Amino acid sequence: MTITITSPDHVSDRNAAFERLFNFRDLGGYVAGDGRTIRWGRLYRSDGLQSITDNDVDTLAGLGLRTVIDLRTRVEVVERGSYPLDRHPVEHHHLPLMRRTWEDDPDLVTPPDPELAAAFLTARYVQMLADGGPALAGVVALLARPRTFPAVVHCAVGKDRTGVVAAMVLDLLGVGHHLIVHDYSLSALGMARVEEWLVANGPDGARVWLQQPPAWLGSPPAAMASFLAHLRAEHGGAEGYLRNRGVPAGTIAALRDNLLR
Questions:
Q1: Using CA atoms, how far apart are residues 46 and 42, in angstroms rounded to an integer?
Q2: What's the predicted TM-score (pTM) here?
Q3: Which of 39, 70, 186, 227 is buried most deeply by CB count within 10 Å?
Q4: Could you give phi then psi for residue 39, rounded to 5 degrees?
């Protein structure tokens, strides 16, 4: 399958075409705080890689993929599988960002009102900061190694856990918050592609999908904007958060050198 990644001048459309990946995109092209630009073809974000087709594997191999970073829980990995290493060997790292999925958390109350989705999501993302320190530090350590790239970070639908990791990396690189929010909001396109595929290929799955709470499927800009405001106010940004969790300054500098040009 031919894959096309758009030029850095068209940052609003950075998705690649796959048969069974719907929220895969390149994080390249954004301008960093020091005026450098994130390299294209180095770091990708995605929905789950466990059900991809042989053609999708070939497409990823064509990108030169070396590293897969899986943010899902242990239960998700056991029940749903992982990237098919037998078809395309890569380094595979499991760094769960949450203790349990939202659907498995009996104490979690999800608001039915779509207007409350942003506040719900922001609270979940802040909780990921509280629970996911080792995973976030682990991701940064991997991205500080030159041999890691090209790499992809993924969770289940590539929106929430992957969105938090992408936001943290982009903030480390000094990308403006308006662009981080923009990148997060592009997951709405991925969710629409999931729904379209389910309607065409799995009506039962489509019904289950459409019954999910609005907050589980949405990526309202306000959710990421509020998360970034919290990150800055409470931790001084991603760098402050990570330094307080033992990540050396040299590791962060290496990540920047690996991703910026």
A1: 13
A2: 0.93
A3: 227
A4: -65, 140
